[in-house]
Fold these 2 entries.
Entry 1:
Amino acid sequence: MSEQEIGKDNIKEAVKQRYARAIERPSPSCCGPAPVQPVPVRNSCCGPAVTETMKGSLVKSAGYQEEELGRLPADAVQNSFGCGNPLAYAGITPGQVILDIGSGAGIDCLIAAEKVGPTGRVIGLDMTPEMIERGRQNTREAGVTNVEFRLGDAEKMPVADASVDWVISNCVINLSPDKPAVFREIARVLKPGGRISISDIVAEELPAAIRDSRDAWTGCLAGAISEAAYVQGLEAAGLREVRATSRLVYDAGQLQGLFGDSACGITPGACGDVGDLAQATAGKIWSARFEGVKPYLKAVASEVRVMPAQEADISAIKTLLAEAELPGDVEGHRDDFLVARHEKKVVGCVGMEVRGSDALFRSLVVTLAYRGLGMARRLYESLVAHARTRGVERAYLLTTTVEPLAKAWGFRRIDRAQVPKRIQDTSEFRGGCCASAVAMSQDLRIPDRAASCCG
Ligand SMILES: C[S@@+](CC[C@H](N)C(=O)[O-])C[C@H]1O[C@@H](n2cnc3c(N)ncnc32)[C@H](O)[C@@H]1O
């Protein structure tokens, strides 16, 4: 049976029934009969069943901290059916609004609630009433008051437009028969500048035996799309800078456990030998975590101001540089740093190190949500104007990533040996940039060269 033959509504009904059953089970196991020994401590519907002995490594590999799980009601942890940890390394900050799509028994909602603190809010959305009820119970038991659960479908979410800072989700979107609708909904509910951190199962070239199995669909396998299709789908919905940032690849042994599982896997015998299937699909099914951002509209660009950096901006600049993996020595050069500021936030920066009439241009960063608005060019042009007031005649830069952009602005590639010694002696040139970086230069005495080259 293909997806069309299974029928979209049928898939959803089957998914609901399955997760209602999973949460109703007396034993906290979605993926198999009640265990005797060893005791599963964290189930994964979308990964191999987890035993006490595996706990440490799984917790670590998924990025959950044992202490943070220790603070949660045991039921929320035991009824975790995720395949990753969307909260690991996500930069959630106090006061933000988080939406967890397919929140299940609430594990990620409760962890997010701690991260956003009393001034923030978490919305858990799930289409299975039994899951919503369990999430509420666990939240009450945890004594948490900033989480609310809403019954609803990810394809048509009961969430206001542009109202959340983060969309997180853990092993859910693969279950949707209409992923473009889910991706559009994510883009709709995010505020401009809002971000996603989504863990999900992805797969390449699944055998028809899996693709056509309703059991495999509700078990997070048959509905899995490729990593590239995921990225493309989210970008088509309007998100930007979408990328997979971490992966947990299942080996044949783990897949065999998953396929052979009576509740989560594939109907025994329906797809042939599970061992053969696991061998055939090893390395082709994994859990990936996707990041991305909803960009600001072009209109916002006119609200962004480029100005000299102040002392108080240094820590924000350092954060930007660290995120871009660029050297963070700013203090000695603060007078030659410019920032792009929007609503009191530093959203971009650029700087230079001046040596006589030469300068090394460096540290050009624009935060994710402000890319595509021409900010990099504005920062660059402002730096050129500033450099001219400082008597700079020739600008140099080192880059591994922006050569085409720099070329459009009037820089030309040169041999590293052609770079004057005083520029080679700058801290950025000496320590900061790898050997593969390209050296470029531009004569700033030629006025408006960049403008004439770029129209
Ligand atoms: C594999 S479980 C993951 C639960 C939870 N994220 C966790 O990590 O424990 C999938 C959950 O997504 C929910 N779900 C599946 N499809 C959904 C949809 N279209 N809209 C809302 N919830 C959905 C199911 O009811 C179930 O609770």
Note: Residues 298-454 form a domain with the Aminopeptidase fold (CATH 3.40.630.30).
Entry 2:
Amino acid sequence: MERNTAKDAWNKRYSASDYVWTDKANQFVETHLADLPAGQAIDLAAGEGRNAVWLASKGWRVTAVDFSTTGLEKAARLAADHGVTVDFIEADATAYQPPASVDLVVISYLQLDSDDRRLVLERAKTWLKPGGTLFIVAHDRSNVTGGYGGPSSPDVCYTVAETVECLDGLEINRAACAQRIVSTDSGDQIALDTLVIASEPASP
Ligand SMILES: C[S@@+](CC[C@H](N)C(=O)[O-])C[C@H]1O[C@@H](n2cnc3c(N)ncnc32)[C@H](O)[C@@H]1O
């Protein structure tokens, strides 16, 4: 999808007053990042800010980046409601460059075609301080036919193997197709996510 069309589509989707993804952090973010010592973080494609705000409430200094003005406005309201500070930057994920290295980069359900996905992952892995963490969760390609919700286009979905391949030079701490329980009116459903957690080797 052309970039401005995609941006307009996300702005429209976020224009409803309710949160599209709820205001609660993603379950894997909560499970895997709860014990990480707080530092400087980037939430890339932060959307309505659920993960950025959760991180800020844990003491992280968070920069939330997204190309959706409407998403970032909602994220700013969520941060204010929780009494936390988050820095917001409206930018394209394929071009954003942070001014300094950080301790954590979170990329949660950023849907891009394969060339842009590879570009973003290869850029993001260079933003980490020694020992820093890159946390990626996304709709797995197997979800299109075997899981609940998510995009119908396999092109914007991830696989564990392709994701790990982009992270050459990092230590892979976790790489799995993970089952995410989604509560619906007709009972619990299972969504299939690519989950990869990697870290920049610590300085000797
Ligand atoms: C499925 S939402 C996920 C939002 C958030 N990370 C979360 O987990 O709640 C995908 C987000 O990616 C953003 N996005 C998509 N393409 C982008 C791009 N090229 N640059 C910046 N943001 C982008 C959209 O605006 C949207 O907020």
Note: The chain has one domain: 3-199.
